[in-house]
Design goal:
Layout (H helix, E strand, L loop, with lengths): L1 H16 L2 H4 L12 H4 L2 E7 L5 E2 L3 E7 L2 E6 L9 E6 L8 E10 L2 E9 L11 E7 L1
Antiparallel strand pairs: 1-2, 1-8, 3-4, 4-7, 5-8, 6-7
Length: about 140
């Protein structure tokens, strides 16, 4: 009996308000999505594996010790210091934490050191991660 009442109530709501998806039209907002080639945004992004292999272009990666990764973005890519985001990825049993430990930029390019820390024990550990550097 309760299921019938709930169904009747749902039908009454639909009958009085209409089905939103059938009556609503969606359009792309006039401001759209930022396109790097249209608004002057410069982006360098890459994937770094746990062993320090980098996938992408415009940067070099070294892996000096466990959990430590150094990335240098080529000089001339950015006119100003970029905003950098780092996200751990990979198959460890518990998600590690990625820390942008040091960061500098200048005429010789952008350099950064990423530390990957285990979330259960706080020790440095090798793990893959993604990074994005954006100059607005």
């Amino acid at each position: 009996m309760m299921n019938r009442l709930m169904m009747l109530a749902a039908c009454a709501v639909l009958a009085t308000t209409g089905i939103a998806s059938a009556t609503t039209h969606y359009t792309t907002p006039s401001y759209g999505v930022a396109q790097p080639d249209k608004v002057g945004v410069k982006v360098i992004a890459g994937v770094v594996t746990g062993n320090g292999t980098g996938y992408g272009s415009g940067f070099q990666v070294t892996h000096p010790s466990t959990g430590e990764y150094s990335i240098v973005i080529n000089s001339g890519v950015f006119k100003q210091c970029p905003v950098i985001s780092v996200t751990p990825a990979g198959g460890n049993t518990s998600p590690p934490l990625a820390n942008l430990y040091s960061y500098s930029c200048g005429a010789s390019g952008v350099s950064m050191t990423i530390l990957i820390v285990g979330s259960t024990n706080g020790d440095l550990e090798d793990n893959s991660f993604h990074f994005t550097a954006i100059q607005p």
